[in-house]
Amino acid sequence: MNEKKRLLIVCSKGTLDMAFPPFMMATTAASMDWEVHLYFTFWGMDIITNSKALKISPVGNPSLGLPNVVGIIPGMTAVATWMMKRKMRESHMPTLESLIEMAKQAGVKFHACSPTMKLSGITKEDLIPQCDDIIGAATFLDMAGDDAVTLFI
Amino acid sequence: MNEKKRLLIVCSKGTLDMAFPPFMMATTAASMDWEVHLYFTFWGMDIITNSKALKISPVGNPSLGLPNVVGIIPGMTAVATWMMKRKMRESHMPTLESLIEMAKQAGVKFHACSPTMKLSGITKEDLIPQCDDIIGAATFLDMAGDDAVTLFI
Amino acid sequence: MNEKKRLLIVCSKGTLDMAFPPFMMATTAASMDWEVHLYFTFWGMDIITNSKALKISPVGNPSLGLPNVVGIIPGMTAVATWMMKRKMRESHMPTLESLIEMAKQAGVKFHACSPTMKLSGITKEDLIPQCDDIIGAATFLDMAGDDAVTLFI
What we know:
By secondary structure, chain A is of the alpha/beta class.
């Protein structure tokens, strides 16, 4: 077989702690020459939405009528999030911003979820430029059904 | 190979936001002629338990000695859940009730988790009629080990 | 094929409700003669860290600058956790301590996540003796890429 191994990750969370694991695995897999796809859905869309991406903010997210959860770990306060970010910086962990860049440079594909966009009113213009395309569940399943390692985070 | 592709999803959460993704994927996969199984466990059992299913309520769940989490997004208030439901209605998203019906009509199999039933005191009579059977982890693993796409949500 | 089936689980949560499912599946799979690996990462590291493992405590976790989440279900109070533990005892459910022992005796491998250790300052000496080794994402992916059933919990 000459085929590349493939990793597919559904990114469904917008919190800092659950945004790191998919990027760490994706970047590692891409560096091992795997084909890697991140499918952002539900709260995970916050990671690739311009107005919310890369921001750590406790302010409300009017599009869903719900508090913005980017970087806010459930049950934790904004202070704890700030402390976690400081700790990550002190430990020389890459930031989410640099993980996004590293992933793109390594060839990881970013897919936005069309039903989530419909639900939340997010448009194509709201997506960060690193996003490759907008797909639905059928396209994701087509990719998953072809012997990929598939994780829901 | 004439074999159908297969999708197995462990549904472990009883919150509205984490109840939608398995049904959306399951219904899509079934419409693509995949064989699809949903294995409801832990809080996910709330989705297929008569007294809790399909209800959005902040009241306590006496069987587990814990607050009922159906439809209550962690860290969100009941008001936010209500706003999310209103938003979904405005966006013409299907309700959880209709997703359950669509999934059944498409041939998706619903499995209740026997250890969770033992833990929480849920009996066969408490399950919604759409539930096909009650299985343990061994049966789930037998299905998963046969080249299925397997997700834990 | 004489090869054993394989189950890989990423354990990313340190709460009581999300610590049980991986151990239940792992122990069941091992009893079916599968090769089973648990990869503890992020909050899941609390399960295999001496000072935190097996403790149900609401006190802060100074290493991450965040509250210790072992046994604290998000959005639940310590009282609810205590009630859940009592209920599990009354239902003759195994404790987390005995699940760890059952898993080890059944041959389940425990892997600690090296990036999480770097982030949180956990050292090899902090790990419970049941932990087999410390690995990174690349080693995990190597195992996953070889036709294993892979779950992220």
